[in-house]
Amino acid sequence: MNAVPRNYISFLLRLYRVREQERWIWRASLEDPLTSERRTFPNLSALFAFLNALTEGQTEGRTPNQKVE
């Protein structure tokens, strides 16, 4: 990930359900609108873990241009 925190992150979010062994599960994908890179997630927990890791530490009193050690 970048060493410099970002103030703005944008993705196209897609949520869809699939049936797996008599159960419906939500899956997700995120697409970067600038690069068209797409990441897929097997469930919402994985999506939230990714978003949490992406933004972790960026709201802990750092200024926008302060580097993360």
Summarize the structure.
The protein is an alpha+beta fold and 69 residues long.
Order of strands, main sheet, comes to 1-2-3
Beta percentage is: 25-35%
Main β-sheet: number of strands, strand sense, barrel status? Answer: 3 strands, antiparallel
The coarse overall form would be: elongated
Q: How large is the count of helical segments?
A: 1
Order of helices and strands: EEEH
Terminal CA distance reads 12 Å
Strands, total number: 3
How helix-rich are the residues, as a percent range?
A: 10-25%
Structural class: alpha+beta
Task: Return Rg in Å.
Answer: 15 Å
Could you outline the blueprint of secondary structure elements for this entry?
Elements: E1 12-20, E2 23-31, E3 38-41, H1 44-55
Antiparallel strand pairs: 1-2, 2-3
Account of the 3D structure:
The chain has 69 residues and is an alpha+beta fold. Helix content is 17%, strand content 32%. The protein is built from 1 helix and 3 strands; from the N terminus they run βββα. The protein has one helix at 44-55; strands at 12-20, 23-31, 38-41. The chain has a 3-stranded antiparallel β-sheet with strand order 1-2-3. The longest helix has 12 residues, at 44-55. The protein is elongated and about 45 Å long. Residues 62-69 have low confidence and may be disordered.
Defining key terms:
69 residues, alpha+beta, 3-stranded antiparallel β-sheet, 17% helix
